[in-house]
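Take a look at the protein record below and tell me what you see:
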Amino acid sequence: MTPIDPEKAWELDASALLVAYAAGTLDPLRVFDMVLARIERIDPQLNAFVCLSPTARDEAAASAERWRQSMPVGPLDGVPIAVKDNIAVAGMPATFGSGLYERNVPTVDELPLKRLRDAGAVVVGKTNTPEFAVEGYTNNALFGVTRNPWNPELTPGGSSGGSVAAVAAGLVPVAIGTDGGGSTRRPAAYAGLVGMKPGNGHIARADGLPQILLDFEVIGTFARTVRDAVLLDRVLAGPDRADPTSRRIKSGDDEIGPLKILYVERLDGNACDASILSAVRKAADVFGRMGHTVMDGELPVNTKALADVWPMIADIGLSRVLATEPDMRALAAEKYVAMAERGASIPASDLLGILETVAKARREVSELFGSVDLVLMPSCAAMPWAADVPFPTEIDGVPVGPRGHAVYTGWVNAAGHPAIALPCEVGPGEMPIGYQLIGDLGSERLLLALAEAYEEAAPWADRWPRIAGV
């Protein structure tokens, strides 16, 4: 095999790196040094990383030695990976983007991190997130604004903006984040990536930071290719007795014979950017050409009821932090203290009403998947906006509120179902646009298999932001 220029190794996905390691044309230490050099050169323009691991180079050297002996420890041995800063990594800060946790250094890895390390992944560093990971852009008082590699004047979305910026710019091949209301799928759409949001329990969790958004939040993954998303899923997925939810749902098969796909253009008449609607329609047409039945229709789920209670969910979650962290008033941003105080004033009867609304939505979604195999819809209602602005106030000429850009994603989290975000085909020089496929409980393998088929039918792998070549 022809030797690979390590200076160009950033262009390779994780799967290709592993092939090169096995062939001896690259080694994890040289790749890590290349990664570090790119971060030092490019990240000042993006602010994707908030800290780098002090032990990563030694871990890469140990991996290189294992490959020299043809004894890799696992399926990700030597692969550089970035981790969102609301996920616990032993020996590294886990700040949640907040001054409240600025000095928080976990002594154990959160369970998904342990699985990545056991598979040989090299954790390069932690990536930026808005405070408490409850915003749709990425900015906080500790680390500042994270910017989109496709246009640094614009946001990469949130709350996993640091992770997608790192992968899209070729600083690392893969990353992980969280998704409590769309924080995997929307940032992936804004960065031209594959973003996998598994269903509740698919990836077991334990030993992490507080979950603000009930059980809506799951670990999500980011990659430039679907095969890398599959690779990460194989490592991360599976039950653990520390997480009882993970023992309830069994993954189905990956059979992708002719499927019934419900294409939903709009939710409850909410505004959506015309360029997004056009691109997602073309993606839906691809599935029709692939032999699947694509049906236009409305989503038979009361998403408006969910939207009405959504603001209270974050408030209540933050009120729990306020009740258990006496320094929150002094160390967290005023905005989030105010949200927590609002949450503390919400009566228990209202919380029960929220849970009833969620339970009804889960029933409606369950019944929906009795008649269709998948739902296809945009990942975002708005194109990326200014990097330091929390949300767009207008979409397609229509005034919108704080979650106007996020209307397509939260219902999936409330239902607990899996979804995958994929890039649409767009023209040269255009910003990325993404769509999502949502499946029934336990359909992660089906989603990944169908995503691979779509990637082959409508490839996007050669698209890089201009900043990536700096």
About this structure: The two ends are 28 Å apart (CA to CA).
